């Protein structure tokens, strides 16, 4: 089948976006892996499927698939690219959009300067919502890996995150520890592994080894989870500027059940068609 797509990126986290609002598009696990493949396909960290919804008060639905084909609950950088997509494609004349995702309804706003602010909802810590095989809720947890034990925070932004403090992101063992944390048996649905270096109370460096995609240049929900865990630990104060390898995201959170607000860029890179 011929599949038309729009290639997009938000802080270097890249996406293939499919418009399924005119007609449904069904892709198999294997087809998604093929599209995401950087040598035999288009190449992307995630594939986003934009659909209509008949849920009252909601404008669209969008589904998120990792490069390994797994469908997931939430994607922060993808949410911003979704807004840029539906506005630039003329699918809406709104600038504040409510969209249904697998983890619930979120509200997004396209700013005058082209940046997008996303209300990501409140973070969740209860292990069962991450899900994380641990007895009681805590601020940090010891995670035994091959040959060493690391200390992580466990935060859900709709999708699960394990955040580890490091001295320097540039020397952090992301390539070795990332896969071990991602597939640790205590995370039955796997987990996104964040490596956070605190620069000052309002700034961090962050690298994320993403569940189902490997290390990406930026992870929006990972930036939210890292900022939230730093605020919980008393190392950070809102707003938090998150320096990722692909760009800067700004995270605001007033604590407790307040929503996490994320602001960052979203760009269209090119249009194309692939035979799959
Ligand atoms: N790999 C994530 C989904 C994409 C999240 C990321 N690209 C973002 O911007 O939040 C997961 O399996 O939960």
Automatic annotation (TrEMBL):
<keyword id="KW-0963">Cytoplasm</keyword>
<feature type="binding site">
    <location>
        <begin position="76"/>
        <end position="77"/>
    </location>
    <ligand>
        <name>substrate</name>
    </ligand>
</feature>
<feature type="site" description="Could be important to modulate the pK values of the two catalytic cysteine residues">
    <location>
        <position position="161"/>
    </location>
</feature>
<feature type="active site" description="Proton donor">
    <location>
        <position position="75"/>
    </location>
</feature>
<keyword id="KW-0413">Isomerase</keyword>
<protein>
    <recommendedName>
        <fullName>Diaminopimelate epimerase</fullName>
        <ecNumber>5.1.1.7</ecNumber>
    </recommendedName>
</protein>
<dbReference type="InterPro" id="IPR018510">
    <property type="entry name" value="DAP_epimerase_AS"/>
</dbReference>
<feature type="binding site">
    <location>
        <position position="13"/>
    </location>
    <ligand>
        <name>substrate</name>
    </ligand>
</feature>
<dbReference type="Pfam" id="PF01678">
    <property type="entry name" value="DAP_epimerase"/>
</dbReference>
<feature type="binding site">
    <location>
        <position position="46"/>
    </location>
    <ligand>
        <name>substrate</name>
    </ligand>
</feature>
<feature type="binding site">
    <location>
        <begin position="210"/>
        <end position="211"/>
    </location>
    <ligand>
        <name>substrate</name>
    </ligand>
</feature>
<keyword id="KW-0028">Amino-acid biosynthesis</keyword>
<feature type="binding site">
    <location>
        <begin position="220"/>
        <end position="221"/>
    </location>
    <ligand>
        <name>substrate</name>
    </ligand>
</feature>
<feature type="binding site">
    <location>
        <position position="192"/>
    </location>
    <ligand>
        <name>substrate</name>
    </ligand>
</feature>
<feature type="active site">
    <location>
        <position position="75"/>
    </location>
</feature>
<dbReference type="GO" id="GO:0009089">
    <property type="term" value="P:lysine biosynthetic process via diaminopimelate"/>
</dbReference>
<feature type="binding site">
    <location>
        <position position="159"/>
    </location>
    <ligand>
        <name>substrate</name>
    </ligand>
</feature>
<comment type="function">
    <text>Catalyzes the stereoinversion of LL-2,6-diaminopimelate (L,L-DAP) to meso-diaminopimelate (meso-DAP), a precursor of L-lysine and an essential component of the bacterial peptidoglycan.</text>
</comment>
<dbReference type="GO" id="GO:0008837">
    <property type="term" value="F:diaminopimelate epimerase activity"/>
</dbReference>
<comment type="pathway">
    <text>Amino-acid biosynthesis; L-lysine biosynthesis via DAP pathway; DL-2,6-diaminopimelate from LL-2,6-diaminopimelate: step 1/1.</text>
</comment>
<dbReference type="InterPro" id="IPR001653">
    <property type="entry name" value="DAP_epimerase_DapF"/>
</dbReference>
<feature type="active site" description="Proton acceptor">
    <location>
        <position position="219"/>
    </location>
</feature>
<dbReference type="GO" id="GO:0005829">
    <property type="term" value="C:cytosol"/>
</dbReference>
<feature type="site" description="Could be important to modulate the pK values of the two catalytic cysteine residues">
    <location>
        <position position="210"/>
    </location>
</feature>
<comment type="subunit">
    <text>Homodimer.</text>
</comment>
<comment type="similarity">
    <text>Belongs to the diaminopimelate epimerase family.</text>
</comment>
<keyword id="KW-0457">Lysine biosynthesis</keyword>
<feature type="binding site">
    <location>
        <position position="66"/>
    </location>
    <ligand>
        <name>substrate</name>
    </ligand>
</feature>
